[in-house]
UniProtKB/TrEMBL annotation:
All copies of domain ATP-grasp, residue ranges: 118-308
Keywords from the named record: ATP-binding, Ligase, Nucleotide-binding
Species this protein is from: Streptomyces roseus
Cross-referenced InterPro entries: ATP-dep_AA_Ligase, ATP-grasp, LAL_C2
PROSITE patterns named in the record: ATP_GRASP
GO molecular function terms noted in the UniProt entry: ATP binding; ligase activity; metal ion binding
A Pfam family this chain is assigned to: LAL_C2
Listed name of the protein: Carboxylate--amine ligase
Keyword ATP-binding appears in the UniProt entry: yes
Length: 415
């Protein structure tokens, strides 16, 4: 008699855009390759990339923990995985209710709220910038008056750089608060000087295992949108080990133990300062870059194997290659013509290339990740080669843009 195959619930599905489709299909394919049956609870109604691979799709509320628990009651799954930021608390609650491996819901709530995460990391003795949770511009102004700038204004629980602004002085505060996605509590914190990195990894046997450090490139302030990444970062071994120790200490102190992690940090003269902690894979095609840099790695398959008690100890998880991504940000205006794209994407080292604009589209200021116009992901033998190739190919792409027309509409009086 054959044993019942293990079952996996893909909680929250993945977005139907290029990045989400790739992440979702990789997860489901890697589960299927291990004989694991899958079902999904997609948030997006149009999810053909999920229905093609998952045995069944269920419509339910995926971000609300109480409604998620009501749906999960009486069901059985061996594993629960999710890749979207907004579903992580509900996912942890569902996993606990099912008796499946997962992170403690309280720990996930902590990392989802940036101020609570900073408090927990500070209590664990890990350096953190001064910060304050604010309910109004007046509270934010009081924090600015009591501390030295520059500062960052950000949503309490956002992602994708949405609503994140740099404030160099009190005169910038009103615009930063207006750029927040909702009139709810927000975080103001001191700006940390230093290059930015992220640390990618998985939990194996309940303990964090770092797979790679990623170097970030950012577009100019006041917004903090990624312009590109290189994986692995070209770092001295001692610096990489310092980053690994800080991230491992943070994840352990927060009580996290399952799945994939993506932790952001700054490298300062005094050592690493941790930024945001995520219990999901990094965005911006980091999952693809990671699997290229570590030949044979299946990121979600590794998590599945560990959760099912399969031996992962003998696997070589050291990057032996490199990858880089560059994002395209054309000038503002109406696009008349795009040159060089076909040549760039045809290069044999390109792992992924997507253009999200076309002639006739109007481009504006890049305020968040979703405003970028496309990307090129390349693979190479070393971080330097990957970065240089990505820069060269991105430089081939030129946007001929008509300057934005001056508005003739009278400005409305401020209310």
């Amino acid at each position: 008699m054959n044993a019942t195959p293990s079952s996996l619930l893909f909680w929250g599905g993945s977005a139907p855009m290029d990045l989400g489709r790739d992440v979702g299909t990789r997860l489901l394919r890697q589960a299927a390759a291990r004989g694991v049956t899958t079902q999904a609870t997609p948030e997006y109604p149009d999810a053909p990339h999920l229905s093609e691979f998952a045995g069944a799709l269920h419509r339910t509320e995926v971000e609300d923990p109480a409604r998620a628990l009501a749906w999960a009651r009486g069901r059985r799954f061996d594993l629960v995985l999710g890749v979207r930021e907004q579903v992580q608390v509900a996912l942890a609650e569902v996993a606990e209710a099912l008796g499946a491996p997962g992170n403690p819901p309280a720990a996930v709530r902590t990392v989802r709220e940036k101020d609570r995460c900073r408090q927990a990391l500070s209590a664990a003795g890990l350096p953190q910038p001064e910060f304050r949770l604010c309910a109004s511009a007046d509270e934010a102004q009081a924090f600015l008056s009591a501390t030295t700038g520059p500062w960052i204004v950000k949503p309490r629980d956002g992602s994708g750089s949405v609503g994140v602004s740099r404030v160099d002085g009190p005169e910038d505060l009103a615009a930063a608060v207006a750029a927040l996605p909702a009139r709810a509590a927000f975080v103001v914190e001191q700006f940390v000087e230093g290059p930015e990195y992220s640390v990618e990894g998985v939990f194996l046997g309940g303990a964090p295992r770092v797979l790679a450090v990623t170097e970030k490139q950012l577009l100019p302030p006041p917004h903090f949108v990624e312009a590109g990444h290189v994986l692995p970062a070209d770092l001295p071994p001692a610096r990489r080990e310092e980053f690994e120790r800080a991230v491992t200490a943070a994840l352990t102190a927060l009580g996290l133990r399952y799945g994939v992690f993506h932790v952001e940090l700054w490298s300062t003269a005094a050592g690493p300062v941790l930024g945001e902690v995520h219990v999901r894979n990094g965005g911006d095609w980091i999952h693809l870059m990671l699997e290229h840099a570590i030949p044979g790695l299946e990121l979600f398959g590794l998590v599945i194997d560990d959760a099912l008690g399969r031996d992962t100890a003998g696997r070589d998880l050291t990057p032996t290659r490199a990858a880089a991504v560059r994002f395209l940000a054309p000038p503002q205006g109406r696009i008349r013509r795009i040159l060089g794209w076909d040549e760039a994407r045809a290069h044999p080292a390109v792992l992924r290339a997507d253009l999200t604009v076309r002639p006739g589209d109007v481009t504006g200021e890049v305020r968040e990740s979703y405003d970028r116009a496309g990307h090129l992901v390349v693979g190479a033998d070393s971080p330097r080669e990957a970065a240089e190739l990505a820069d060269r190919l991105a430089g081939l792409v030129r946007f001929e843009v008509d300057a934005p027309e001056e508005s003739t509409e009278p400005e409305e009086a401020a209310s």
